[in-house]
Amino acid sequence: YPSEFLVQKITEENQIPVHLHVSVSLQYVAGLKGSALVEFFHGNIAEVENEELRHLMWSSVLFYKTPNVEVMACVLLSTKAIYFLLDDSFVTLFLSCCFVLKLNDLQSVNVGLFDQYFRITGHSADHIVTCLTRDSYNTHTFIQQLMAVLSLLARTPSPEPVDKDFYSEFGSKNTGKMENYELIHSSRVKFIYPNEEEIGDLAFLVAEKMDGLTNLPSLNILLYVLAFQVNHVEGSAPNTSSLQPKTLILTSSDLFLFDEDYISYPLPEFAKEPPKRDKYQLADGRRIRDLDRVLMGYQTYPQALTFVFDDVQNQDLMQNLTLDHFGE
Fold it and tell me: Which residue ranges does the record assign to the PLEKHM2 PH domain (predicted)?
């Protein structure tokens, strides 16, 4: 019997992002409110009688075995498991409309740069899922709820840690390189956050793509955001367009679009070989000095931006981007 506050909170969270299309079955789930939503969870999804629904979130998800297929899902967090109600278009690949990851099988959670996404890792390749929230608030809220639920798990306590100083705790004595910041929860699940070196590596990569024309120390990444590139479909209705996931990176001199691998890095412990593609692949890059104008749509969140470049060398002068959020 969840509290009235919890039921109201879950009802408010049960909203599909307006720019993403989902199947009729998921639209039905999004239409459920209040106690009807809780009853639906217990009657159709929950695996044991005494588990409690704690959090609901709509997000695009990626699976480790199908890294190029992004699918819409309703993510339900209970006191026993994380459930992913998948869009019908994906069911044929996985032969299941609901993917379940039990909390007892959870080993680590990797949070992406600027909290734009997070990866949940279980004990095998079948149990690795990335949630592309494209929103730091949604990521933060889910992680907080997940930590709270994990605190309820009865696991054998880890042996008492030996006191270590900062450098031996987070650094490698062999290389002197700082590792990513790691928080080990009382449930023994690792929460891994990127450190400043990851931004430095990204800045170095961006500088390489600029053919070394930029002085690396002066190169600052001003914005990193997961966005969509809008491709209008020819021969279809005027408002029909496909959204291609892209990572947008803005520096003081250039605007870049990358195809990023959000699921394969860092390598899981059981991986026997590196992924087939690099983490970042350059899709497009333009100089800010060639930017002629920026057109802003009048619709509400998410905001659509059109960047028009005065670049004679490139035939394609129009770049359409839909950002999931448009900050100050």
Answer: 71-158
